[in-house]
């Protein structure tokens, strides 16, 4: 029960800051933005010379998406980007974090010839943003690998992918870098590796040889990220003056007891998530805890690799933070998948007395735990020598329910409370000395939520899929507008 008291203290402290969180609690240069990704919102999959991505195939494979949907049209951002950018401006956000669809730039991924129509589309997006005074934060890879790269060389399983990704990154810096000053390479390599090659819940949907492929795919993503960073630092940074980072995700792990083995389990859990990627990039190798459990399933970094990953380090850590778990040591966690099982960590969502760690949102994995945000931020700062951090995603979902009247759905009080709570914890982290520089909410719009299709709504803005994809700001969007106005006073 000792632990319980600690959390209650956190909650009390949290409650006392929540209600008053204001824009003025953040430094003036701290940037607030809103986030999306290409496959989830663009649609227009056969337009503008776009090639197919692994997600086109995956979403059209029976049984992969719960509602049998796909993102061929999604919210049609490809045609409505102007309207969407007006909306971002109207709400007062000063940053927009989106991703570039690789197969729009290089339809087969091989990088022989850029697709000018793809370049033109993103030029239009970028120029429209700048006209409205909104800073573009561009992610190069948010899961939509050109299909041909998967079919021909095995995608992330082949080391050659590093070169193809480097060519793609170089082309993006060359075409957009005069105006884009904030880059991230790969969004959530953990989810790509585990979803794509272990559980098979994400494209390309493999769980053929998870104990090997999961770690190999991740290894190549670390190298691909580093190759892109190195090109940016050596060839563009001086001229263009921007910055570049990686986007990792972390579910905070709170030990469920004071027992040393549970404390270690919690530490290990975080190392398996953040350390998998950040240890190599900051220290040159995977965490010991991972090596001990995975042995040579974790590939080695050659001397040449080490030079690449440690040379010209990234400028900031991008963080996606949604939820937290109570964890304890367990030889057999009963979890699904090689990655989860190998950690010897079991997870739970209830304290000993039955109280929940937080309310559940619509997605099964998403419990609302604002204080976990502050802890993840502090952990990154303490472990990796206080790097600049940009929160690239944070948000919650509601279940799609067509029987609830629109007015009721739009009044998303729970999401307002969610944002107040989490943003207050970000402000606390800054007071703790963590160098957090920006925050983006996930997501601007309801959109294609991967294997959940359109059954989950993460948007600040509601999209009416039955009536012409019209956009309707929810109360949370209006809350942001008021919150952000505060800064102009
Ligand atoms: C992120 N988890 O994925 C992605 O970057 C977004 O594209 C996605 O829409 C958003 O979060 C909401 O799901 C995550 O299980 C998926 O902890 C799952 C988890 C975290 C992030």
List the helices and strands and how they pair.
Layout: H1 2-18, E1 31-35, H2 38-41, H3 54-59, H4 77-91, E2 95-99, H5 102-105, H6 116-131, E3 135-141, H7 147-153, H8 161-176, E4 182-187, H9 189-197, H10 210-240, E5 243-249, E6 252-255, H11 260-283, H12 288-294, H13 303-310, E7 316-320, E8 324-329, H14 338-341, E9 345-348, E10 359-360, E11 367-368, H15 370-383, E12 389-393, E13 398-399, H16 406-410, H17 413-431, E14 436-442, E15 456-457, E16 461-464, E17 470-473, H18 475-485
Helix pairs in contact: 1-17, 4-6, 8-10, 9-10, 10-13, 15-17, 17-18
4-nitrophenyl beta-D-glucopyranoside is lined by residues 37, 40, 187-188, 191, 249, 251, 320, 322-323, 365, 393, 442, 449, 458.
Strand order of the largest sheet: 1-2-3-4-5-7-12-14
What structural class is derived from the secondary structure elements?
A: alpha/beta
Distance between the ends: 46 Å
Number of strands: 17
CATH superfamily: Glycosidases
Q: What level of helicity do the residues show?
A: 40-55%
**What proportion of the residues form beta strands (DSSP E)?**
15-25%
CATH architecture: Alpha-Beta Barrel
Low-confidence residue ranges: none
């Amino acid at each position: 029960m000792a632990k319980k008291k600690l959390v209650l203290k956190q909650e009390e402290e949290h409650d006392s800051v929540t209600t008053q969180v204001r824009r003025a609690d953040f430094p003036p240069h701290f940037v607030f933005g809103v986030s999306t990704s290409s496959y989830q919102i663009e649609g227009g999959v056969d337009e503008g010379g776009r090639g197919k991505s692994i997600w086109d195939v995956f979403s059209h494979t029976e049984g992969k998406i719960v509602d049998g949907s796909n993102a061929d049209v999604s919210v049609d951002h490809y045609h409505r980007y102007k309207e969407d950018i007006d909306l971002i401006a109207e709400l007062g956000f000063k940053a927009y974090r989106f991703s570039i669809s690789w197969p729009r730039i290089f339809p087969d991924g091989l990088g022989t010839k850029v697709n000018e129509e793809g370049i033109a589309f993103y030029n239009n997006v970028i120029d429209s943003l700048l006209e409205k005074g909104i800073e573009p934060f561009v992610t190069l890879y948010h899961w939509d690998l050109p299909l041909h790269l998967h079919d021909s060389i095995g995608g992330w399983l082949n080391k050659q992918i590093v070169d193809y990704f480097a060519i793609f990154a170089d082309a993006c810096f060359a075409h957009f870098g005069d105006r884009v000053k904030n880059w991230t390479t790969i969004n959530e390599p953990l989810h790509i590796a585990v979803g794509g090659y272990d559980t098979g819940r994400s494209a390309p949907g493999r769980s053929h040889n998870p104990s090997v492929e999961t770690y190999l795919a991740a290894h190549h993503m670390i190298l691909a990220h580093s190759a892109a960073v190195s090109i940016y630092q050596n060839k563009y940074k001086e001229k263009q003056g921007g910055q570049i980072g990686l986007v990792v995700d972390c579910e905070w792990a709170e030990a469920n007891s004071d027992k040393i083995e549970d404390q270690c389990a919690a530490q290990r859990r975080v190392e398996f998530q953040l350390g998998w990627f950040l240890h190599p990039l900051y220290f040159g190798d995977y965490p010991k805890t991972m090596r001990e459990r995975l042995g040579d399933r974790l590939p080695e970094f050659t001397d040449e690799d080490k030079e690449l990953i440690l040379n010209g380090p990234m400028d900031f850590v991008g963080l996606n933070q949604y939820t937290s778990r109570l964890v304890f040591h367990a030889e057999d966690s009963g979890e699904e998948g090689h990655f989860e099982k190998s950690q010897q960590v079991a997870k739970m969502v209830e304290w000993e007395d039955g109280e929940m760690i937080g309310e559940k949102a619509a997605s099964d994995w998403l419990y609302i735990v604002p204080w976990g945000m502050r802890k993840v931020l502090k952990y990154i700062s303490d472990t990796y020598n206080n790097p600049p951090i940009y929160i690239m995603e944070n948000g919650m979902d509601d279940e799609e329910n067509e029987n609830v009247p629109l007015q009721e759905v739009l009044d998303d009080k729970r999401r307002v409370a969610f944002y107040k709570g989490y943003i207050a914890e970000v402000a606390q982290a800054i007071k703790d000395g963590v160098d957090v520089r920006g925050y983006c909410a996930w997501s601007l719009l309801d959109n294609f939520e991967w294997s959940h299709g359109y059954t989950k709504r993460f948007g600040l803005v509601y999209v009416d899929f039955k009536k012409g994809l019209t956009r309707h700001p929810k109360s949370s969007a209006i809350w942001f507008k008021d919150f952000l106005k505060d800064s102009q006073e």
